[in-house]
Amino acid sequence: MFKRLLCLILSLIMLSASSAFFAYAQQEEDSASEGVAAVASEDDDTMALLASLVKKFPAGKYWNHMGSDINAPDSVTNIPCKSHSGCSWTEGACSCNSFDRAIQCMGYAHKIAYELTGASPRFSFTKSTKLDASKLRVGDVIRFRGDGHSICVTGVSGSKISFTDCNWDYHCGIRWGVMDISYITSRNFTYVLHYSGNDRKNTDLYFYDHIEDYEKEPEPEVTPETWKMGTDNVNIRSEASTDGKKVGTLPAGATFSVTKKKYTDEYLWGYVSYGGLRGWAVLNYSEHISGATVKPLITDVPELFTSKNITLKWNEVEGADFYLFRLYDENKKVIKQFNVYGATSASVSVSEDGKYYAKVFSRSKHASSWTLGGNLVPFSVEIDEEAVKIEGIKLSHSKASLVLESNLNLEVTVEPSDYTEKLVWKSSDDSIVTVTDGKLTAVGFGKAVVTLSNKKGTVSAECTVTVKPARVTNISVVSSETTVDTISFTWDKVKGAEGYQVYRYNEETEKYTKLKTAYTESFTDSEAEAGKSYTYLVRAFVKTKDGTIKASNVTAKLAARPAKVTGFRQKSSSTGTVTLQWEESPGATVYALYKYNSSAKKYEKVKTVKGTSCTLSVPAGESAYYRVYAAIKTNGKYLYSSASDKIFTVAGPEKVAPVGVSENKGNVKLSWEKVDKAYYYYVFRYTSSGWERVAILKGDADSFEEGSLKSNKKYYYKVRAVARKGGVSGYGAYSDKITVKTK
């Protein structure tokens, strides 16, 4: 159903004098115009009314009264609003039209709803804060974007609606479009106004291929003429085009009435009435019998001619055998006239500068007098008599891109260089770019052409200017101590930007891949790998009547937070040291060690290292808690992983200092000074296999005695103190070697 509705509206666009409707910005900007307003009603009068509203308020026009101080809600202009700063909701505020005590988007939506229902949305509709597509009807008003924008519903099909609105471009521009209601809910839906008397059904309809079938035929625009068919039959169509739908036939020899005429497809068409049939038929094969005739109208006449040789053209008049051309002076006195045969143009020369008028009459050999002429066209002739003829103008830029509120000075080169006459600057759209003595100022988004010409306009140069949003600035990673496998970042808001396009560089394809169109200044890449760096591209964009305009690209290399460090442990210890070790965290470039300060009751950073182990100097026998963090540098700052599991460490106690040795036959006794925080003493004796532990003594011991040794032999010993707490041991340095010889 919905596709069929879209077909109808495509024909509405062809008949509208405006530019193509803008599609809604919910989709990617590269898919731009998805469709235009579909109409949905089983009431033919409503269909005809919607068709008339599309023509009355064409897409691309502006719902304002620019150039006038009078509020005009039933009119549109070709001029966008320049500023909405400080607008109040009153009649004629900021040159915006007003209706139902509202201006801009709300006033326009209420106006269309009123036209469709005959009731005031403000006073007659029911407000609901729930959006249900099954309850929407033609003429309902939806408010969203955080109570910032209104649209009027023109049709519903499933989850999609067709709509019309204005001021999406902040200049009161009119649109007819299609969107899914999911887009509305994603953009801060506020409320919907339902008309209680709106019982129109949004169901399947029978409709025609052309909008004329939904228009009520206007009253005849001219006095009816009588025509007679020749020897052939001619089709009657729904519009003045060979593509129009056939609605009947004019038979050979038939006499019929014509109420209006137009030229299309190189044919003269007439709106005919015959035997109850009404429509458009080609008149080239018919004979004019009586009534009004077509007037010869001079077209496309410039206001100023810069040559004394002038050529004027007019439309061909069916049945005319020749034309009379007349030239008048500024007092409308005839100064030249002559007949023109077999052509629809005339060339004439004037003797001097001044204001002139021209008019053309048509004549038939069978008419008794000239028909009333067509339009009396005024024009002026002013010959270029500059002392030095200008040959060329060159600007320093033929194309330029500016960001909003920026400036550019165009440099000018004129040939010949001694040309001194004043040149004229002009912008095709002052709401986008203004120009003063070559200085361009960007005041609105879009495209405009800046022209510099001589006074006569015979020599000129152009610069096409595109005003786009500024570049994104200050891309920064959002910190989080727990999330991995994601990269979240933000950037500063760009003035006037409607949204932002986010891309990520693919190293395999060596191209940027689009990730998302964001409508806030933030993005989270949930498909990143922990500890891996990526290059992102972010650019702002706006939607304008000239299409989607994008800002310059900004790239930033950002990294995902490294994974939590695992395998953290005390590898070894010695007197006054502990050596810590852990498993590598992929992507991490450094690791930060933190030690718990029991007095301050917090962990404090003690060292940053590049490897996966570290030896710390601490007081002998000290016990403490440690954590380690993996880190990777991104955007000039380190991004840390979450903390590892904490570990408990014990440093080795002081080195044992022997104080005495006694030897007897087959017996040795060693003594030493007690070591603070010693929990054990390990005694080692050197054997043929190396140093072998021969005793473990409690921490209160200060001597060791060993018997059953061989007589008259040297023995070597070392003693080591061991601290222990919480199930963790810290090993002190070995004592100096002790040499003993038995007796």
Characterise this structure.
This protein is mostly beta strands and 743 residues long. The protein has 7 domains: 2-195, no CATH class; 217-290, SH3 type barrels; 298-381, Sandwich (Immunoglobulin-like), CATH 2.60.40; 392-468, Immunoglobulin-like, CATH 2.60.40.1080; 476-559, Immunoglobulins (Immunoglobulin-like, Sandwich); 569-650, Immunoglobulins (Immunoglobulin-like, Sandwich), CATH 2.60.40; 658-741, Immunoglobulins (Immunoglobulin-like). It contains 5 helices and 56 strands. Strands 3-8-4-5-6-7 form a 6-stranded antiparallel beta sheet. A hairpin with a 6-residue loop joins strand 31 (446-453) and strand 32 (460-468). The longest helix has 14 residues, at 2-15. The radius of gyration is 45 Å and the shape is elongated. The model is unreliable at 1-42, 203-212, 216-222 and 366-370 (pLDDT under 50).
